[in-house]
Amino acid sequence: xxxxxxxxxxxxxxxxxxxxxxxxxxxxxxxxxxxxxxxxxxxxxxxxxxxxxxxxxxxxxxxxxxxxxxxxxxxxxxxxxxxxxxxxxxxxxxxxxxxxxxxxxxxxxxxxxxxxxxxxxxxxxxxxxxxxxxxxxxxxxxxxxxxxxxxxxxxxxxxxxxxxxxxxxxxxxxxxxxxxxxxxxxxxxxxxxxxxxxxxxxxxxxxxxxxxxxxxxxxxxxxxxxxxxxxxxxxxxxxxxxxxxxxxxxxxxxxxxxxxxxx
Amino acid sequence: xxxxxxxxxxxxxxxxxxxxxxxxxxxxxxxxxxxxxxxxxxxxxxxxxxxxxxxxxxxxxxxxxxxxxxxxxxxxxxxxxxxxxxxxxxxxxxxxxxxxxxxxxxxxxxxxxxxxxxxxxxxxxxxxxxxxxxxxxxxxxxxxxxxxxxxxxxxxxxxxxxxxxxxxxxxxxxxxxxxxxxxxxxxxxxxxxxxxxxxxxxxxxxxxxxxxxxxxxxxxxxxxxxxxxxxxxxxxxxxxxxxxxxxxxxxxxxxxxxxxxxx
Lengths: 263, 263
Ligand SMILES: Nc1ncnc2c1ncn2[C@@H]1O[C@H](COP(=O)(O)OP(=O)(O)OP(=O)(O)O)[C@@H](O)[C@H]1O
Ligand SMILES: Nc1ncnc2c1ncn2[C@@H]1O[C@H](COP(=O)(O)OP(=O)(O)OP(=O)(O)O)[C@@H](O)[C@H]1O
Ligand SMILES: [Mg+2]
Ligand SMILES: [Mg+2]
Hints:
Chain A has helices at about 15-30, 45-50, 60-65, 95-100, 110-120, 140-150, 165-175, 200-210, 225-230, 235-240, 245-260; strands at about 5, 35-40, 75, 80-85, 130-135, 150-155, 185-195, 215-220. Chain A is α/β, with parallel strands linked by helices. The interface of A and B includes residues 17, 47, 197 and 198 of A.
């Protein structure tokens, strides 16, 4: 069965996009068929994967608001034959208001994704993974992702504010379970771990204590090569494959692949 | 005239909260009377200023949704006699939905703040600065800040994605001018500048080229002391006053104080 990850955390700048694109590349690099859905109007995941996403271009907005089929917005990602992405443009920021009075507005992505995944399966081209990149809020876009998803992947930055909002996110996931029984927070990834600071170690320890086995053994180090990669329209996996950042995303991908969906 | 800054940028983790609290402390440290309004349901500014903000406690939610007077939610900040703050709790995340059908919902903060500032002025205790910390989105909370504010301060992280969303923010500010004539983006602050990387220099150069004089000469360096301070419930101004981070916020505060509101 296709594993559908929602990469979410309402705290800003914790590495959601960086995690979604680099994990996707690492998984695709070892042959898995992977789809990234960009659900952030800023379109950072689209940028990192080298996909055009200027205002007005076809994107996930057309799926959510106009109900168009997801298949029409799936683009191949350069350098990775089994990696595809659905871009987001700034038009998506209007979706929340435009869907305000629509019935079942939080299930729009789920319906489109389920149809698409079934079609692909029938055609013998089943996707192994879907990764949905969320904006830094718990509004309608993130709700759509949580209703469509099967597993939640929470990146936690090894900084002080990082743990403050996680409890709220877990509560929201519990609420969404009424609409989506199978949803579960299966994976937590520590990001921007800086081995030189006590703060990083403290946050990592607190996270492992309170979140237990969901926290991956691999922590992603803070690394300039990771933050440089998007300026070249690449993921760090191709920009600097031997760097500590790339290796840690490979490790994390391997850990995720070896665990099955139930923790 | 009280200077009312809206600290906004929909990109997450760029240093909005860090800038709001450390600038406020730097300004208050030299005698100015300063108010910080936390408008982010995560309540990171409240944490950094050492103000209790657990769910259900009195906070800015009561002002926005129940129309209570702001004066009832202004708390003194430890270690700074002329620094005050209005906390935010997680209850604030319900405000957007609860105000959905209320008339003039984007002007709720403005009304409360104008009443409060007038009262303070009449009592001979005029505030010199107000800094409103926004969440990483352009929803109703940030709209309330933009309608209430007079100047916009945009922190820009010296990382690749940083410039992608700034154009959108400027467009929103233009739209809000219909409701708030005096609103202007007067100040841009470069944050987390890492002198060792080409990327930082590139982003800083691009920002100065496209945003001109609004960009402060001072850039805040990436510094562990800044990110450690909130774990001690302090700003870096008291946690490590001689550190490069504290000194750069002092510099930035001086630059802002010397420029008057019109750029
Ligand atoms: N391990 C890392 N080392 C160094 N920089 C990193 C790392 N991970 C992410 N970054 C950088 O930190 C910034 C924030 O990361 P990113 O944009 O992925 O976070 P996000 O959670 O998606 O942000 P938002 O909340 O705005 O969606 C980016 O500039 C990114 O390049
Ligand atoms: N100059 C700096 N050097 C090092 N770390 C910093 C600096 N400025 C901010 N930080 C850290 O980076 C993280 C993001 O900063 P902060 O929370 O202030 O950003 P924000 O824009 O308010 O985030 P959000 O979008 O979630 O509101 C925090 O952990 C903070 O401590
Ligand atoms: Mg992102
Ligand atoms: Mg903040």
